[in-house]
Every structure is written in C-alpha cells, then in structure tokens.
Specification:
The protein has a single domain, classed as Orthogonal Bundle (ADP-ribosylglycohydrolase fold). Helices cover about 65% and strands about 0% of the residues. It is globular. The chain starts with a helix and ends in a 5-residue tail after the last helix. The mean pLDDT is about 85.
Length: about 150
C-alpha cells in the first residue's frame, strides 16, 4: 500500500479533470484549447476530483474503503458547482438528509440505480494505493463503485 502513489495519481487526475472541464465552460475557445492554449488562471476541479479526494481520505484514515463512510463523505462534501450530474446530486442530497445510501442509490433512475461512470472517474488513486495487490484492487474497486454513484 502506498499513500504517496495514491497522491501522485490524484495529482494527475485533478489536473486532467480541471483541464477537461475547460472544454465545457461557456465562453472558452474550443480551437484555442485544441491548439494547446488553455485559459489562464486557476482552473476548478469537478466532482470527479472531489470524490477522488474523499476516496483518498478514506484510504489514508482507514486503509480500506468502507461504503457507509465513503457515501457519507461524498454527501457531506458535495458542492453543486463542481458539476455533479442530476442523478448523483439527487442521491447525495438524499443521503445528506438521512436516507441510507443503498436506498437513495437504488431509487435512482426508476429503480435501476446509477448508470454513471463515477467509480471509474475517481478510481485511479485506489489502484495506485493497492498497486502491489491486484486482488485487493479489485475488491476495493467494487466497494468504491457499489456506493451507487457510478
């Protein structure tokens, strides 16, 4: 297990996330972005990085993913301006109001649960943390994904 590797992974994830978010900002020049001329100034990260930070905090503090704690952290740190999808925002709002995450997630999308990609978007630090034990990567990735948020 390597927290340093997880942090390095988060560095790359967060920069890529913030750069990618520039393609969705009103007033940004797509040709300039494609040409390698991104806008100046600080770029905001999105929900993907925010949730990856929650995941790293869980690993740092506990050494493994606990779905209940992770779902609560996702809900507690949900900031709408980060660009959460409507389904994820609804689930997190319900969790924040006390609905158990399994119920909130299970009710999403007409009872089908989340069909999102959140687990993949935030999962890189988890793979880096457990890189020396691929069975553990798979086990913990399932815990990360099964929170009902993609």
């Amino acid at each position: 297990m390597s927290l340093e590797s997880a942090y390095r992974s988060l560095d790359g994830l967060s920069v890529g996330d913030a750069l990618g978010a520039q393609f969705f900002m009103v007033g940004r020049s797509l040709p300039a972005l494609i040409a390698g001329t991104p806008p100046a100034g600080a770029w905001e990260w999105t929900d993907d990085t925010e949730m990856a930070c929650n995941l790293i905090t869980e690993l740092r503090d506990h050494g493994a993913v606990n779905q209940d704690r992770l779902a609560a952290a996702f809900a507690d740190r949900c900031e709408p301006y980060r660009g959460y999808g409507a389904g994820a925002f609804t689930i997190l709002h319900k969790i924040r109001k006390g609905v158990p995450w399994r119920d909130a997630a299970g009710a999403a999308f007409n009872g089908a649960g989340s069909c999102g990609n959140g687990g993949a978007m935030r999962g890189a630090p988890l793979g880096a943390y457990f890189a020396d034990d691929l069975d553990k990567v798979v086990e913990q990735a399932r815990m990360n994904w099964a929170t009902g948020l993609g």
